[in-house]
Design goal:
Chain lengths: 341, 341
């Protein structure tokens, strides 16, 4: 039998447990060109709030009664697809369920290298890490010597951004929501310093920690912190707009940076990017990040909880800023990661 | 005798005549390394409102009693500077006055080619035209085939942007504030179509006129029109933030684009730029634009009024959207332009 979470009703404001319903259904049988994945880990990301609220701009909202959308990593357990054989480790948009049928299309990615645990396929070696990689190198064009500011520094993406920035010779400063998180940022995630936005004045702390200005701001949060960053950019600075967790659940009008025009005076570039655009280069990012993990230069940070039944709670953890590192849920025994590498 | 406008008091909201005071003072004598310019034309630009309000981010506000800041074009009438001789045509930050002393520093530019009238040194062949040129080619990286949207399409910068975009093989659509201006945009300024923001729904008109999306948005206004443009960008679109006339006089908080996050879904780049950064390439822009003027491919559009006493009124024209093309004031006989080319 398969088990899956479906959307029971459209949430109002914060996502609640009762917005979802856990169902048992039969595992469907395969057609030609399909394979069956046993999902072992499921991913949580802030953008999922948009899937259930309004879909954002390019995604359709999840329909009531539909399996909740989300990426997972797992193992192919049967296949009628020429490109996937039993035992392949794959991550893809398998949804909040134990077993998923796939035809290999739609950003399904066969892991070549998981450098540790296959759960990294949702974190540093999955779209989370690829977002950090392409956001830094292709969008922000980070260079050795750049002073980098990262909001959500201890979140899924931010926990990789700091470490890759350090590998690239840049000087990352993080922003996070507690002293404990700031400690993790500086001790484990490559950050030179970290700002607690709940207890410190972010604008003046940025100025103090980066007196020459910020060359690159990697934004995961939007809102007031984006404005504080804009006011501290160096000439020719780059802002990579990755996420906007402060605005996803905003009711009524969302907030744009009121001081956006200041980008004019310093020739600042602000660029949005969507990781799907880089799909043809995921293999490049995976290979490099895997090498950094094996070389001990990048330590993926994961916040793992257990059981399919924990999915709604895991999503709520993101908006409560409870997670440190990539939030994943393990929903089956992992017989793949152990002792493989 | 020299005559000059000084700032009499700091304006509140809109700039009024009584914020300035016209004075007669002696023409100062030259020291070594200086030259004297007789100013013939003075420039008006929306950003001047910031000079008298708060200075914006990088300029100091004009002090009470100080000569009002602004660029002019004129002729060197005496010189103790090795690099400038009597008869040289120069544009520079000479202020609102008849005679200015200069040491040649601070963005003083000796015109090599004025292709028509020297007043072009404030328009197409001055910082206005250079802003169009570098904004299009270096910031927005316009390519042949691009669909381009330009706000303030009939203003100083916009009236050049449309024509250069057309020369570059792009397809410009303008936005302006009246049917008359929209007519000028399409008949004289290279625009394929124009939207009257006072009588049409800008968002839906952009969508109708650019069904494949906007590749480049050249923003001179900010505010609601910037938001409408953001919602209509094509994948990998570029937004060049040049001006924000809707916000310069805003009292209280300025408005950022509430939908800025939509740049994420389409990989849009939004870049501010400041023309001073391109000073080492002004000669390139002047030579190319002058050639286009002489070849009949670019017709500078100028809105000229007369007399130094008209300066405050000329500034007010910009915020009343009264000007079509570059607003200049002629304050002396032009004995240079006539019959030279």
């Amino acid at each position: 039998m398969n088990a899956r979470w479906v959307l029971a009703r459209r949430p109002v404001g914060l996502v609640a447990d009762s917005d979802f319903r856990l169902e048992e259904v039969p595992v469907p049988s395969l057609s030609d060109g399909q394979f069956l994945v046993q999902v072992i880990y499921l991913s949580l990301a802030p953008v999922m709030a948009q899937y259930v609220l309004d879909g954002g701009v390019i995604e359709k909202p999840v329909a009531i009664g539909e399996t909740m959308r989300g990426r997972g990593v797992g193992v192919v357990v049967s296949s009628r697809h020429a490109g996937f054989v039993v035992g392949d480790v794959v991550h893809g948009p398998f949804g909040w369920q134990k077993f998923a049928i796939s035809d290999g299309k739609g950003l399904v990615f066969k892991m070549r290298d998981w450098a540790g645990a296959i759960s990294n396929g949702l974190g540093a070696l999955g779209l989370t890490g690829f977002t950090a990689y392409f956001g830094l190198f292709d969008v922000a064009r980070v260079r050795a010597g750049d002073t980098l500011l990262v909001s959500g520094a201890v979140g899924g993406v931010g926990s990789v951004v700091g470490q890759i920035a350090r590998i690239a010779g840049a000087d990352p400063v993080g922003i996070a929501g507690s002293d404990a998180k700031c400690g993790i940022a500086t001790e484990s995630l490559g950050y030179r310093a970290a700002i607690n936005y709940n207890s410190e004045d972010v604008r003046s702390r940025i100025a103090a920690l980066a007196p020459g200005g910020i060359d690159v701001y990697f934004d995961n949060v939007g809102g007031d912190i984006l404005e504080a960053a804009i006011d501290n950019m160096a000439n020719d600075g780059r802002i990579a707009i990755c996420g906007s967790i402060s605005q996803y659940l905003a009711t009524g009008s969302r907030k744009g940076p009121a001081n956006y025009f200041n980008i004019v005076y310093r020739n600042v570039k602000m660029q949005g990017f969507h990781i799907y655009s880089y799909a043809n280069r995921f293999v490049e990012a995976e290979a490099r990040i895997a090498r950094w993990i094996r070389d001990g230069r990048l330590a993926p940070r994961e916040d793992r909880i257990y059981g399919l039944e924990s999915m709604p709670a895991a999503l709520q953890r993101l908006f409560a800023s409870a997670n440190t590192g990539k939030q994943v849920v393990q929903i089956a025994d992992d017989t793949v990661s152990v002792g493989v590498r």
